[in-house]
Amino acid sequence: MIAASPAVEAIVASEYEHGFVTEIESDTFPPGLDEGVVRAISARKGEPDFMLDYRLRAFRHWQTMATPKWAQVHYPAIDFQAISYFSAPRSKDGPKSLDEIDPVLLETYNKLGIPIEEQMALSGIAVDAVFDSVSVATTFRVKLAEAGVIFCAISEAVHDYPDLVRQHLGSVVPHTDNFYAALNAAVFSDGTFVYVPKGVRCPMELSTYFRINARNTGQFERTLIIAEADSYVSYLEGCTAPMRDENQLHAAVVELIAMDDAQINYSTVQNWYPGDAMGRGGIYNFVTKRGDCRGARSKISWTQVETGSAITWKYPSCLLRGDDSVGEFYSVAVTKGRQQADTGTKMIHLGRNTSSTIVSKGIAAGEGEQTYRGLVRIAAKAAGARNHTQCDSLLIGARCAAHTVPYIEVKNPTAQLEHEATTSKISDDQLFYCRSRGLTAEDAVAMIVNGFCKEVFKQLPMEFAVEAQKLLSISLEGAVG
Amino acid sequence: MSAALDKGLVRWLAAAPCADAVAADWLEAQRAQARARVVDQGIPDSKAENWRYTSLTRLLAQGFVHVAEALTAVQRDDLEDLLIPGLESYRVLMVNGRFMPGLSDLHDLPDGVRIAGLAAVLKSDPDALRERLNGSVGDEQPLFAALNTAGLDDGLVILLERGARLERPIELIHLSVGMDEPRVAQPRHIIALGDCAQANLIERYLSLGDSLYCTNAVVEITLGRDAVFTHQRIQSESARAFHLSGLYLSLGAASRYQGTNVGLGASWARTDLYVRFKGEHAECDLQGLYLAGDGQLMDFHLDVDHQLPQCTSRENFSGILYGKGRAVFDGLVRVARDAQQTDAAMTNRNLLLCEGAEVDTKPQLQIHADDVKCSHGTTVGQIDPEQLFYLRSRGISAARARRLLCLGFAGEILDTLVPEALREQVAEQVGRRLEQAPLD
Questions:
Q1: pLDDT one-digit tens code per residue, A42-90
Q2: Looking at the domain assignment, is residue B101 inside a domain?
Q3: Bridging pattern class, strands B268-277 and B242-251
Q4: Is A419 in CB contact (< 8 Å) with chain B?
Q5: Do the domain assignments include residue B368?
Q6: CB contact under 8 A, B355 and A403
Q7: pTM to 2 decimals?
């Protein structure tokens, strides 16, 4: 073991960098959930009847469900009546440019290091910034519109493109899917809608920054991305949250639909507040993400870097319906302190000659606990299916834990599957080698861990890859010693 | 829990242990506790993680009843065909779960070795087993171990004192003979090796005729410090049989267990292997081979719990599936917080030969210590077309080439069987099974 240097200790003791609360008046519902609240959310957003029906169906179904208990995470029971289900920033008269945006908001983004102006000007990324639950800034709309790409808040899409929403919403993750998906369908406040028409290659990376604010407000985002035949879109999602004492629930639903020859890349960097050293506070991140490779030769790729949240419960999945369709899942998950993550993926092979790749890298440090839970299912008719799965865990410290729970179900004799999993620590030999060449223990560990995760990082768009590496180093340095 | 299932269980549970096995108070207390445990647990449905892929409906619908008395109709002549030529062993014969001293051959046992029927020991010297019975199973008895305890009346006791060695293997033949009513035999074997003792046990599950019955065996093995135990289990029950077996292992410091499980027979078979390390530097090597053809289910569950540091375990299971055969493999390796320097590797390989075959595999790791070397690997695939082409280009028919390649695939596990005579006999059985498989 290497003795912790003072610098390391300083980092260990350092508090969450992005923890602050913006004092901005919110229009928040009192805590509690009943049919009236669902109706009120729908009314507040002026939704058409089909949306209200959808929400009510989901809510009624949700009432019949019990909270899932199978994940390897431990937390006190959530009181769903103690949560407020709607919170909207005050100034909501539809800003058309940054000048119209509440300056306090803008400053919040600046503190987070996400200056919207700069991003607009420099990086060419269209940012749909979500502050609490209502989209307040949507940029580059014009440029995207020229290409025919629709990129807007889902609440706007409900009004402007009701047919698309009605056709696709809930078609990948039905409201009956699971407890949190049902809850989300009933009360989702806002989120992102992307539609890429046939033959269009989206001219820029699309990006949404989420930020949870306003005390006790569960965040129920809903994302729907539709890529028509022969189109391509890459979507980035990244998040930070202010420091809190109470646990905050986040139950998002993401639905992706890829038609013939379409490709969707969905990348996430998640760095929500993980709770303090004793495990108090921190976000509960219970997310349902699923992509439907509906068309032949379609491809959906999930990449995630999960370093935040007290509890992560997340399984981005692919339904490989179309012949020759491809599903991918690349994940780096870091748990330290008292963080718990139960994450993985499902690859459901239904079409012929479908293939999927799973690369999961778990890093557990401190008293962090993490589980890879994955399912690869080859249906009887899915001839020629191919899967390769690799899950590696790196353990740092004697009090952490890493688990691997893969389910492999094969009903077709032409399937070819491999699954490998390893668990190890950073070897003393590797460390010694680096240190003998003059690297500090900290740098050596950072380098080795970055190497461990490289396979996943190289899947991220460049801007994200840099952020992810930095995040990983900061997350881990404190845990080594 | 449906009413029909309940009835099956009640019938099973109601089976009273044999009258001549009337026993000490502590045994009655254990039976009562086990019965309560069965009632508590009820029938696990598909939501129960341990029974996710294996339904108990068919098993319980048979309405199995306990074998009440020993079957004396079996004669020595009936056994001739069952013996393995060239295998010299201490032979123990159990018919429908009852120890048959007259058909067994236990002459010339060396000093310090005691092999006897469980019923006899319970009658003559019950306190010898007081600590041992359920010593490895523990209080948290799984459903079928609890059922076994509740109906427990016979089995085999093998006790080796410190330093005792058996040069010849012990051959334990479970012979099942069909009765008018479908019967369940619930043998319980208690095996304990003292420090530095060594033994080799061959367990064979056989039947006369193509009858319907159920075996629910529980084997408890305790190894002392530096003990060495080799254990081979060949399951060739009748094609209509139901087979359940639980192996509960407690390994002392620096002891070595090498076990090979071969699953060939039965229409529905479930094997549970529990490994508990009680001392450091112990080694456990579990090998397995299963063939599942038309309508067969082969289910293997492994639970290897590394509670102490510096122990090693290997789990290596291979399966060949054809027809409408189904296999389930659920392997769990746990490493506790202080079990540093654990070395565990699990492999599960499956060969799917035909449309309609299915495999569900779930190799799991649960790790709470950082200085460990743990891995698992799983593959599901077919016969490599290039290998097939190679053999065909040398004039071998497609079907024969496939069988050869399957035998080669099985060979890795078969090679762990000793002695030679046993290995040859099992390889021949596997070959015969593959002959019947529709590989053309």
A1: 998 889 999 999 999 999 999 999 988 888 888 888 888 988 887 765 4
A2: yes
A3: parallel
A4: yes
A5: no
A6: no
A7: 0.87
